[in-house]
Amino acid sequence: MEALKQELKSKIIEVLNLEDIAIEDINDNDPLFGDGLGLDSIDALELIVLLDKEYGIRLADPKQGKAIFESIETMAAYIAENRTK
Questions:
Q1: Angle (CA) 17 30 57, round 5°
Q2: What is the reported pTM?
Q3: pLDDT tens for residues 11-67?
Q4: Domain tally for the chain?
Q5: d(CA 66, CA 68)
Q6: Please, which residues bridge with residue 31 across strands?
Q7: Residue 10 structural domain
């Protein structure tokens, strides 16, 4: 699970072009939106695409994303349970 979290952090930085943020700057339980990483709704769409492309996970309901994208911890847990790739 730890390797998946590191991989996720790296992919998020790459996909969202977060040039000023390093993997070490992202804590597993920090919120990804709002006060944490400060992501917005456009970033959420990018994360949905990332789940589909990298892990074979399609979100039927975009509202699911709110719970899934709460933190690196919640994303990693969801991916570990639902990945097809």
A1: 65
A2: 0.92
A3: 999 999 998 999 999 999 999 998 889 999 999 999 999 999 999 999 888 788 889
A4: 1
A5: 6
A6: none
A7: 2-82
